[in-house]
């Protein structure tokens, strides 16, 4: 399966590159999966890797993340191709999401009803994590969901800024204020004393020792929203404990206890920097920088071991000064995004036009056989005032078509007209007369119908494509 350049035809297929294949194409989903493998080969070549480790090794697990409209391709067609070829591993799981909508409508790149990533990064520089957070928190894992700019603003301001950002900032500010940024020692006896007065306190520290495992298990099982919820719950618990113990007051009466409180708090901040990394990589890196610790110091796989001795951040370690992790999103920035989207609606040449129907593939469209035909006879349907019964020469036959156009055209007006006829529509009886096709009609804003006809004479049987 060497990468190769293939000229794509207009019908979303690829020309059959063999003698005798002229005029024939391969279905795009027979060809497209090869692109996944070819792309891996190119990436491996560019990075001095072995592409076969990713596609042929029994130690590799292949997982496809897709939308629900691609389930058939990734669960049936692609695996069949891989299995038939031989030597390739098969996908072990195909997590499929539902659809994400935008401000009350389906996302449509053709109608520019979308949030373009390059424009987002221009309008919201250095806010990649904010978008990652919001999209994960509303991820349509089990049902369709919706992105709105107001919700984006609320989640950033009320959850990122006010929750995780607030907690990290408070802890670092207090340690700098109380101890000039030097991490105080943890005293287990003081911690047990705190447990007596605040039952949730020590059990929370115990929970912290398993937190990484909880988030890890959720991610492994593709429960990304739940994993993100656990990350945010940790910072919520941190804020709650600080508010309950009030170290800024306690330090006046029991400074030794405050040392243990603040040591536990900074360990929690360090734990946050680790478990938020899959969701908020830039934020994770920034927290570690504020703690003056490296990626190796705060590594995912050593987190539990270090937490046993409260040594994620060592005693007497010098941390940095506080910096805000997130900035509030202001109303004017959100209004600008909403206006930008609404311009898409305003620029429609016909605001009364009905919304576009659900997108179809070219293969689905190509199944329709539309021909030019000439109406030979026309008469009112004997049992329906709105119907005309017509015979039409389609070039391949003469057939009867019943159409609901009697309120718009008299029988004498339509005889001799060339019209577009869907000829491979299954016949059905309409008021007792079998109709063997459908005439294409256009409708204006007032509901007036007009024939979709060629601008010049076309031989009967000419294809509409």
Concise overview:
With 465 residues, the protein is α+β, with helices and mostly antiparallel strands. The chain has helices at 28-46, 52-55, 71-85, 117-123, 128-137, 149-179, 188-197, 199-220, 224-245, 247-250, 255-275, 281-290, 303-307, 331-346, 362-366, 411-414; strands at residues 13-15, 25-27, 62-63, 66-67, 91-93, 96-97, 100-102, 105-106, 145-147, 370-381, 384-393, 398-403, 418-422, 428-430, 433-435, 438-439, 441-443, 449-451.
What is the number of E strands?
18
Per DSSP, the total helix count is: 16
CATH superfamily of the largest domain: Isoleucyl-tRNA Synthetase, Domain 1
The neighbouring-strand order within the major sheet is 12-11-10-13-16
The level-1 CATH class of the largest domain: Mainly Alpha
Q: How far is it from the N-terminal to the C-terminal residue, by CA?
A: 34 Å
- Radius of gyration using CA atoms only: 33 Å
Largest sheet: 5 strands, antiparallel
Overall structural domain count? 3
Structural class: alpha+beta
Q: According to CATH, what is the topology of the largest domain?
A: Isoleucyl-tRNA Synthetase, Domain 1
Mean pLDDT across the residues is 88
The second-level CATH architecture of the largest domain is Orthogonal Bundle
Task: Indicate the proportion of strand residues.
Answer: 15-25%
Low-confidence segments, ≥5 residues, pLDDT <50? Answer: 1-11
